[in-house]
């Protein structure tokens, strides 16, 4: 990468002396760190422009780092969303090219990376618990490299806490400098200091990083990075930076590559995929165009996530309605059913506009399932406002919903608001909401009874290895008995039983399929 083009602020802190490490004395390094670190700042983040994103195709592992991992093993523990899963595949690819082998057994790992999630406080608490557990391992195996990366590393308070309280951590790096992993691992191995490298601003797109895909028939394809929506409760625009779309030709080539390698299903990924292309200043190519081009590629199933209602245009609905390999499942987060709450959340649509959009989708794609995300207990949410959310769930009869209690995220506008809603009230609202959501999921599943549906067989059921599990084109989970040889295949299953969260069914024979 051309250093001149690198506009980001780079921070490398190597200040923990080995003596400090041995003594285990926690020192206050925060002052030093704050001097070189930009915490999330809404005003300056909002000013970020759409220009100046370079695409690089010249990633390579430097020669002196290519064999560093020989005879050593790594383990990456991934928390949070599919974007993190995707990033972990890149990190695994890089480590394999450095000569490391992968392991799932933490006792034999020489490098353990925690790829973290910052979306809610409980996600962070889980990671801090894990960091604490690793202290014991590190004591028994001082050669072990412990790294913390992902969204939490982009937060100043997290980095300070690790610097002060978790000196057994060897390496902290952020979401914008994953491609620097070879150098960072080398430094962590050969230095006795804690290595901290977090770029506070997003940067260029690095196209050709190695990739060790976890799935052999299902693959993630990232189409854009970052988010510019700035919902007032959300940390993502700060941890993931501004919206940057990959070039269409690069996305399409990746999809073609997966098709050539027999992949059955791809998920196009982005924090806000509906904004795809808006930052490509030299082109009017949008998500609808991309999907239309991907329709022509021989891959049986294509889905995308996550959508924001604001950018969900008619062209997009029309392309999905054409069918083919486009899966009939739309995940469309609504967050609240009350217009005042939606407004202070900065969601940029009203309840009525959301309903109109959802109705349009249902009308044009009649078999589509509609799922959503909902937050309860936003600061000062009243019982009446919460009732509006309940009534929206009843009105929309969502096929499924992911529901959350609001969690204050440092640096976001909502976190600065006073909040008069007690925790217990928020928890109670979540429970009441879940009851309604589950009722509708069960009703939606019940409608599937006796239908014969296409299922992509993903593997053994978690609860019972004698049973296989897979998903319909509408993303419903199906359990059924079949030989293990169908794992990774598209089969037909007749639904015999419906539960709130899953369906049971029977494999339909090939002869019966021929008669369908
Ligand atoms: N608190 C609770 N839920 C949140 N989400 C995002 N930020 C927060 C927060 N601060 C939820 C939203 C989003 C989903 C991925 O996580 O519902 O759609
Ligand atoms: Fe967060 Fe999604 Fe809103 Fe972006 S659109 S700020 S990722 S909730």
UniProtKB/TrEMBL annotation:
Binding site for [4Fe-4S] cluster 1: 81, 117, 151
GO cellular component: cytosol
InterPro entries the record matches: Elp3/MiaA/NifB-like_rSAM, Methylthiotransferase, Methylthiotransferase_CS, Methylthiotransferase_N, Methylthiotransferase_N_sf, MiaB_methiolase, rSAM, rSAM_horseshoe
TRAM domain sequence ranges: 446-509
Name of the top EC class for this enzyme: transferase
Residues binding [4Fe-4S] cluster 2, per UniProt: 227, 231, 234
GO MF, any single term: 4 iron, 4 sulfur cluster binding
SUPFAM superfamilies: Radical SAM enzymes (SSF102114)
EC identifiers of the protein: 2.8.4.3
Cofactor detail note: Binds 2 [4Fe-4S] clusters. One cluster is coordinated with 3 cysteines and an exchangeable S-adenosyl-L-methionine.
Localisation per UniProt entry: Cytoplasm
Region (Disordered): 1-26
Keywords carried by this UniProt record: 4Fe-4S, Cytoplasm, Iron, Iron-sulfur, Metal-binding, S-adenosyl-L-methionine, Transferase, tRNA processing
Cofactor(s) the protein requires to work: [4Fe-4S] cluster
Major localisation: cytoplasm
Span of domain MTTase N-terminal: 72-190
Domain Radical SAM core: 213-446
Record's catalysed reaction(s): N(6)-dimethylallyladenosine(37) in tRNA + (sulfur carrier)-SH + AH2 + 2 S-adenosyl-L-methionine = 2-methylsulfanyl-N(6)-dimethylallyladenosine(37) in tRNA + (sulfur carrier)-H + 5'-deoxyadenosine + L-methionine + A + S-adenosyl-L-homocysteine + 2 H(+)
Subunit structure: Monomer.
Function: Catalyzes the methylthiolation of N6-(dimethylallyl)adenosine (i(6)A), leading to the formation of 2-methylthio-N6-(dimethylallyl)adenosine (ms(2)i(6)A) at position 37 in tRNAs that read codons beginning with uridine.
Cited PANTHER family: CDK5 REGULATORY SUBUNIT-ASSOCIATED PROTEIN 1, MITOCHONDRIAL TRNA METHYLTHIOTRANSFERASE CDK5RAP1
Family: Belongs to the methylthiotransferase family. MiaB subfamily.
NCBIfam families on file: miaB-methiolase, MiaB/RimO family radical SAM methylthiotransferase
Name recorded for this polypeptide: tRNA-2-methylthio-N(6)-dimethylallyladenosine synthase
Organism: Bacillus selenitireducens (strain ATCC 700615 / DSM 15326 / MLS10)
């Amino acid at each position: 990468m051309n250093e001149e083009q690198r506009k980001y602020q780079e921070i490398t802190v190597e200040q923990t002396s080995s003596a400090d490490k041995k003594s285990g004395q926690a020192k206050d390094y925060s002052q030093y760190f704050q001097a070189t670190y930009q915490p999330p700042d809404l005003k300056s983040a909002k000013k970020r422009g759409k220009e100046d994103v370079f695409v690089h195709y010249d990633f390579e592992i430097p020669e002196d780092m290519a064999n560093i991992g020989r005879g050593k093993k790594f383990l990456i523990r991934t928390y949070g969303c599919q974007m993190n899963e995707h990033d972990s595949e890149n990190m695994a690819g890089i480590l394999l090219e450095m000569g490391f082998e992968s392991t799932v057994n933490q006792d034999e790992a020489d490098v353990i990376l925690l790829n973290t999630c910052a979306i809610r406080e409980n996600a962070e608490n889980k990671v801090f618990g894990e960091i604490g557990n690793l202290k014991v391992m590190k004591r028994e195996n001082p050669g072990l490299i412990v790294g913390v990366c992902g969204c939490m590393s982009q937060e100043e308070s997290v980095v300070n806490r690790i610097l002060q309280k978790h000196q057994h951590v060897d390496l902290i790096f952020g979401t914008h400098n994953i491609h620097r992993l070879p150098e960072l691992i080398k430094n962590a191995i050969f230095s006795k200091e804690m290595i901290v490298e977090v770029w506070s601003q997003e940067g260029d797109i690095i196209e050709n990083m190695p990739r060790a895909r976890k799935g052999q028939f299902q693959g993630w394809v990232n189409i854009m990075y970052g988010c510019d929506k700035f919902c007032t409760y959300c940390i993502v625009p700060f941890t993931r930076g501004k919206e940057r779309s990959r070039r269409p030709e690069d996305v399409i080539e990746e999809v073609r590559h997966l098709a050539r390698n027999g992949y059955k299903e791809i998920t196009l990924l982005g924090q806000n995929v509906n904004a795809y292309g808006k930052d490509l200043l030299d082109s009017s190519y949008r998500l609808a165009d991309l999907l239309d081009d991907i329709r022509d590629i021989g891959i049986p199933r294509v889905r995308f996530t996550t959508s924001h209602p604001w950018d969900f245009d008619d062209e997009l609905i029309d392309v999905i309605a054409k069918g083919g390999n486009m899966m009939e499942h739309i995940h469309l987060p609504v967050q609240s059913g009350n217009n005042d709450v939606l407004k202070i959340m900065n969601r940029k649509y009203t309840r009525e506009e959301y309903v109109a959009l959802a109705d349009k989708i249902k009308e044009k794609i009649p078999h589509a399932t509609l799922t959503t995300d909902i937050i309860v207990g936003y600061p000062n949410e009243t019982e009446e406002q919460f009732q509006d959310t309940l009534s929206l769930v009843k009105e929309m009869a969502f096929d499924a919903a992911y529901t959350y209690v609001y969690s204050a995220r440092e640096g976001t506008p909502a976190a600065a608001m006073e909040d008069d809603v007690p925790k217990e009230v928020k928890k109670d609202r979540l429970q009441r909401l879940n009851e309604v959501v589950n009722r509708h999921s069960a009703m939606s599943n019940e409608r599937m009874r006796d239908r014969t549906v296409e299922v992509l067989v993903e593997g053994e059921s978690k609860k019972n290895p004698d049973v296989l599990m897979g998903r319909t084109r509408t993303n419903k989970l199906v359990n059924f008995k079949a030989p293990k040889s169908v794992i990774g295949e598209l089969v037909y299953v007749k639904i015999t039983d419906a539960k709130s969260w899953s369906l049971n069914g029977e494999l339909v024979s090939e002869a019966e399929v021929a008669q369908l």
